[in-house]
Amino acid sequence: MPSQRDTDEAAIRQQIDKIIEGLRDKDLDSLGRCYTTDVVSFDVEPPLQHVGMDAKLRNWANVFAVFETVAYEIRDLTLTVGEDVAFGHAFGRLSGTLKNGTATNGMWVRITYGFQKTGDTWLIAHDQVSVPLDIRSGKGMVDLQP
User: Fold this and answer.
1) Any idea what the Cα angle at residue 24 is, between residues 84 and 57, rounded to 5°?
2) pLDDT, mean of residues 48-60
3) Is the Cβ–Cβ distance between 129 and 44 less than 8 Å?
4) Exposure string over 30-64, b if 16+ CB within 10 A, otherwise e
5) Per the structure, how many domains does the chain have?
6) Range of the domain at 74
7) Please, are residues 37 and 53 in contact by the beta-carbon 8 Å criterion?
8) How far from the centroid of its chain's Cα atoms is residue 31's Cα?
């Protein structure tokens, strides 16, 4: 019989799968069910932080405004699961076809997740997305591969 930690980790991985599906389907309602209402997101777009569900979903709506089709890939998801909080990190890549018909492979970013368990449901309470910075040039290094 699986331990509670194994069951919780599987549930968290299912939430990440729901984000991938929600992006592919361009489904903001589905995406909204993956986050706490007071989620804090340190995304790649300004400002420095996006606070609350509406702000997080506006980020995804911005993606849908630019992309005709969306693909999202997560690699190397590593989780540490406690009783009612968990954290994880992974590499992610958003790609697809832009509204103008141009295909893009996107770029790999680093993702950190903070999860909170409410009842039996694990939700993302915090996420941070970043790209490495070349200090000398001051530019993000968007061509790195995991």
Assistant:
1) 55
2) 96
3) yes
4) ebbebbbeebbbebeeeeeebeebeebbeebeeee
5) 1
6) 4-130
7) yes
8) 10
**Measured distance CA(111)–CA(78) in Å, rounded:** 11
pLDDT in tens, 116-140: 999 989 999 999 999 988 899 999 8
Strand pairing partners for 139? 134
| DSSP structure string for 43-89 | -SSSSS-EESHHHHHHHHHHHHHHEEEEEEEEEEEEEEE-SSEEEEE
Give the whole-angstrom CA distance, residue 35 versus residue 103: 29
Q: What is the radius of gyration, based on Cα positions, of the chain? A: 16
- Return the SS3 of 24: helix
Peptide bond into 47 cis (omega under 30): yes
CATH assignment of the domain containing 114: 3.10.450.50
> Could you tell me which residues come within 8 angstroms of residue 15 by beta carbon, excluding any fewer than 6 positions away?
34, 115, 122, 123, 124
3-class SS at 140? strand
Residue 142 lies in a domain: no
Q: Quickly state the pLDDT bin for 142 (edges 50, 70, 90).
A: confident
- The CA-CA-CA angle for residues 116, 117, 123, to 5°, reads 60
